[in-house]
Amino acid sequence: MPPLRAPSWGCLPDAGAFVLLLVGFLMLTTPAAAESGARQVQISLVGELASEPALTERFTSWFDAEKYQVSVREQPALDSQQVLSPPLDGAVYVWVTLHHATVARLYFATAAADRPPAYSLREVLLDSGLDEVGAERLSQIVHLSTLALFEGQGEQERAQMARLLDRERPLPPPAPRAAPPPAPRAAPPPPTGAPRAAPRPSSPSPPSPVPDPPHADERAVAVEFGLGYALSPRSDEGLWHGPALHAGLRFGGALLELEGQAFLPHDEDMGTVRLRFWGVALGVGAGWRLGWGAGWSASGALGPRVEVVSYEPSLSLADEITLTEGDTELRPELGITGRVGVRGAALGAGLFVRAAYALTRTHYDLKTDTSAREIAAPSRFLPTAGLELIF
How far is residue 149's CA from residue 294's CA, in Å, rounded to a whole number? Predict the structure, then answer.
């Protein structure tokens, strides 16, 4: 019997093209560093925040003066129509309000002639009010959320923002503390034998009003699609590759994901037989997504997947071997998929990797009239890596 042949890696030149394709995608989709002009940011301090002039300097200090033109103004009350209908000039408008004594609400809106309005809302907990720490935290969130909105990362639609604005109430002024009543003077004891007055029941003091807790921010629902190309080394079965796609449904940070991949036909030598493989895979997963900075995000999803794999002998490498028909089989697996990407206003690019474990063992046997011998057994660990465009 001829010695077993090592897996053929004739598809490895595709890996170089894969890397070049990755670099090209990232160059095309990463937002350009140079802007034609300074981006406009207008911040309104609403209500009693107008009496905090130190916030103006803090807000402007977070923005690069060469790239952003920031103006801060005072506004006596929040105007819902201003938030819902921002000017079509591409600027980001921010309204900073105090919803409770230790809770600030930040409303963000932007619109342009070539894209629909985008909105965002942040609630910031100020444990010790607007002290040094609270003001710095507020300024940082204004800066990061504004950059995200410039890159098209709006999280609320107009109808959602309108409902949130309906629940906005001005902060009630603190009630003045009443001075404690003077201690009653002790009455002289009644004379001996005089009738005693029955004690009057004391009326219960009214309960102290409890402020309403801040309303939780509504979770935004977003749909994301990705189309790319992936490689999957399969030890004895060679290097599998083909187009990949995914669809993600996001509820705030929670994520539901549907993914699929096609495996293009390729040949692989196993002992004295050359096999041709092709197939498809479909999987689902649930996980979490985190966004930061100017359009960057990362996610992870865990779930099952099933591969439908077809293979057939295409060539005998020994005269005494007679080829038979191929077969199609289902291969269930369980794995986790991680994605990292950057997205602009309409298009993004990203990398994804998947680590999976096959729930069934695959092996290939060489059978004769009197015996059968295993000639290959691919690993049950199934790694995948690829790049994708994000829509």
Answer: 8
Helical residues (DSSP H) of 3-62, grouped into ranges: 13-29, 54-61
Looking at residue 148, its pLDDT comes to 86
Walk me through the domains of the chain, giving residue ranges and CATH numbers. 39-166 (3.90.950), 219-390 (2.40.160.20)
- CB-based contacts of 170, cutoff 8 Å, min separation 6: 47, 77
Q: Which of 356, 333, 326 is nearest to 265 (CA)?
A: 326
pTM, two decimal places: 0.49
Helix (H) or strand (E) holding 80: helix 80-84
Distance from C-alpha of 154 to C-alpha of 152, rounded to nearest angstrom: 6
Interior CA angle at 209 toward 203 and 215, to 5°? 160
Both structure tokens of 54: 């130190």
Residues of the chain with pLDDT under 50: 1-13, 29-36, 171, 173-175, 202-219
Strands (E), the chain: 39-46, 68-75, 92-100, 103-112, 115-125, 221-233, 239-251, 254-270, 273-292, 296-316, 327-343, 348-358, 364-367, 372-376, 381-390
Q: Which of helix, strand or coil describes residue 122?
A: strand
User: Reduced to 3 states, what is the DSSP secondary structure of residue 148?
Assistant: helix
Residue 360 contacts by C-beta under 8 Å, 6 or more apart in sequence?
331, 332
Instruction: Report the alpha-carbon distance of residue 258 to residue 289 in Å, rounded.
Output: 14
**pLDDT of res. 36:** 46
DSSP single-letter state for residue 177: P
Q: What integer pLDDT is reported at residue 15 of this predicted model?
A: 52
